[in-house]
């Protein structure tokens, strides 16, 4: 083959790889965004539930350190649930 033809073929092939790589990066960013949003929503819902449980505990027993401990554990569980949701959504893409 002619050198110029080989060079042109190499350029077309190289540029196609760059374009598909950029498209793959865009898809990866989109999946990452969706995972972060899903995780933060899950965390927010679980945290709201934790605060509702805390309010019920305080109403039932007055201010109590057990209520504070339960709130802390519930908030930690909410964060863990948010992270797990983000990982699951991100892995599914």
Could you characterize the architecture of this molecule?
The chain has 2 helices and no strands. The radius of gyration is 25 Å and the shape is rod-shaped. Helix 1 runs antiparallel to helix 2 (65-91). It has 93 residues and is mainly alpha-helical. 6% of the residues are buried. Helix content is 92%, strand content 0%. The chain has one domain.
Largest sheet: none
> Which shape, going by the Cα principal axes?
rod-shaped
Number of strands: 0
Low-confidence stretches: none
- Bin the strand percentage: under 5%
Please tell me the overall pLDDT. Answer: 79
In terms of quaternary structure, the protein is: single chain
Number of domains: 1
* Portion of residues within helices: over 70%
Going by helix content, strand content and strand pairing, the class is mainly alpha
Number of helix segments? 2
Please report the distance between the alpha carbons of the first and last residues.
42 Å
Radius of gyration: 25 Å
Topology as a string of helices (H) and strands (E)? HH
Compose a concise summary of this entry.
With 93 residues, this protein is an all-alpha fold. The protein has one domain (3-91).
Please render the helix and strand layout as text.
Elements: H1 3-61, H2 65-91
Describe the structure using short key phrases:
single chain, 93 residues, mainly alpha, 92% helix, rod-shaped
């Amino acid at each position: 083959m002619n050198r110029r033809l080989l060079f042109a073929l190499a350029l077309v092939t190289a540029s196609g790889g760059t374009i598909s790589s950029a498209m793959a990066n865009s898809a990866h960013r989109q999946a990452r965004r969706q995972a972060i949003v899903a995780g933060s929503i899950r965390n927010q819902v679980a945290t709201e539930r934790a605060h509702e449980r805390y309010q019920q505990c305080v109403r039932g027993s007055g201010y109590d350190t057990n209520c504070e401990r339960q709130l802390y554990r519930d908030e930690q569980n909410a964060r863990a649930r948010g992270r797990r949701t983000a990982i699951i959504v991100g892995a599914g893409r």
